[in-house]
Design brief:
Layout: E1 26-30, E2 39-45, E3 48-53, E4 63-69, E5 72-76, E6 80-83, E7 93-96, E8 102-103, E9 113-114, E10 116-122, E11 125-128, E12 135-136
Parallel strand pairs: 1-3
Antiparallel strand pairs: 1-5, 2-3, 2-4, 4-5, 6-11, 7-8, 7-10, 9-12, 10-11
């Protein structure tokens, strides 16, 4: 199997993507205020790929910031376990919240984006697996 850029992705015997063969993420310039573990969307900013905080009132998430060195971010766009003290109960589905954050309550306010972004695996770990399909309440 290959990506749009021709890079190979390997699949296990069970038909699952071999995570070891998936790139670490997409390199982007972080907008002001973007931090590690924020949910972000990617956009072209005068020819530069830039990441901005996602928000359930305006822009759905396309990934989360895996690492940040100054303004240079690596944005994970594939499923990944993340050490994150969420304060959310084990097994709960998490949704895109506001200002790059998460919530365990699906938004119900008119005009907001409902986007599942993962699941709490234990009190300190979240599996980010962003849903591509999203609905606006």
């Amino acid at each position: 199997m290959t990506t749009k850029t021709g890079k190979r992705i390997f699949v296990t015997e069970n038909g699952e993507v071999d995570i070891e063969s998936v790139p670490a993420g997409v390199a982007a310039v972080a907008d002001t205020g973007v931090a590690v573990k924020d949910l972000v969307y990617l956009a072209d900013d005068s020819g530069t790929l830039k990441c901005f905080k996602a928000d359930n009132t305006a822009n759905a998430a396309e990934g989360f910031v895996k690492s940040l060195d100054g303004v240079n971010a690596v944005v994970a766009i594939t499923p990944e376990k993340v050490a994150l003290t969420s304060g959310i109960d084990l097994g709960r589905v998490i949704y895109l919240g506001t200002d790059g954050g998460i919530t365990d309550t699906a938004p119900i306010t008119s005009g907001t984006i409902v986007q599942k972004v993962g699941k709490v695996l234990d009190p300190d770990t979240v599996l980010f697996n962003l849903q591509t399909g999203r609905a606006i309440v």
